[in-house]
Design brief:
This protein is α+β, with helices and mostly antiparallel strands and 299 residues long. It is built from five helices and twelve strands. The strands form three sheets. Strands 5, 6, 7, 8, 9, 10, 11 and 12 form an eight-stranded mixed β-sheet that branches. Strand 1 and strand 2 form a beta hairpin.
Length: 299
């Protein structure tokens, strides 16, 4: 069960400092200027009856990418961005590149689901004029299934944009996770409670449950009337992920770029310089105009 959430009406952005207006029912507030997301400080805590609160086991992914490798990854990433502003192309030289451990929650659970819906089979019909149309025959289906989840990772901090962290997670850091304290790098404290992290993890697991149900139903198309899921055996671990972070200002707004410390993947916004775009379009126009002038003068 989730209790109502209350939050202040005005909050500063933790990255750029902009004043953000929030509604009382919001649990996540996204900054429209820099994209940073914040979980609201709750006047009432969120409780989930599927999970018994416990002290999570601590895991850490050690840094496998040093600063020189992170700068090289930034340089190659910026080179591949057409019309990138100068500050982005020079970001690999920036003194703002720092190492940090960002906290995450890692969840495991069993999902017991019952689904009802319909399986569709496509077929082609032809009218009296010879026109052919695709139609679908629907057949009722229902079933039960169990899905096991071992490593569902969700951020436990709002200090970095969720979209950038999701991009870094494509390299599956859990393969190199080990127990123990971090070594020699700054650690960011978590500001997302485990209960809020579990709610986000359940959303991810719900999507995977529906995908599994579609595979089991089969056919050419599927539609569901209900997918009811009960979670059991929920466990939680805390995970520190190594990240190199750099920032720059473009168009008056701070921008953040992340480099994963375990694989070297780069994630960041892709601003384009209007001056470079204008020059790219103006150059061929100018060349064409000069060619026309010479052509007219030679006639």
């Amino acid at each position: 069960m989730v209790e109502p959430i209350f939050a202040p009406s005005v909050r500063p952005c933790t990255t750029c400092g902009a004043r953000l207006d929030s509604e009382a029912a919001l649990s996540v507030l996204a900054c429209p200027y820099c994209g940073t997301e914040q979980h609201m400080r709750l006047e009432r805590r969120v409780f989930d009856r599927d999970w018994e609160p416990q002290t999570p086991r601590e895991l850490v992914v050690p840094f496998a990418v040093d600063q020189s490798e992170a700068r090289r990854a930034l340089r190659e990433w910026a080179r591949g961005r057409r019309f990138a502003p100068r500050r982005l192309r020079r970001l690999h030289r920036s003194e703002s590149l720092t190492s940090v451990y960002l906290p995450h929650w890692v969840w495991e659970a069993e999902a017991h689901s019952r689904y009802t819906g319909e399986r569709g089979r496509h077929h082609v019909v032809e009218d009296g004029r010879g026109n052919r149309f695709r139609r679908t025959r629907w057949h009722p289906v229902e079933g039960v299934m169990t899905c096991e989840f071992d490593d569902v990772v969700v951020p436990a901090t709002t200090r970095a944009p969720r979209l950038l962290l999701a991009e870094l997670m494509r390299d599956r850091p859990m393969e190199s996770a080990r127990p123990g304290p971090p070594d020699g790098h700054r650690v960011v404290r978590f500001d997302v409670d485990p209960e809020a992290g579990l709610a986000e993890a359940k959303l991810q697991m719900d999507e995977l449950v529906v995908c599994e149900a579609r595979d089991r139903v089969g056919g050419d198309a599927q539609r569901f009337h209900a997918v009811d899921t009960v979670y059991a055996g929920i466990g939680c671990r805390s995970l520190l992920l190594p990240v190199w972070t750099a920032s720059y200002v473009f168009a008056g707004r701070p921008r953040q770029v992340l480099v994963s410390g375990w694989a070297g993947r780069v994630a960041g916004a892709r601003p384009r310089s209007p001056w470079k775009i204008g020059a790219a379009f103006a150059l061929p126009v100018a060349v064409t105009a000069v060619a026309l002038i010479f052509l007219v003068m030679s006639v």
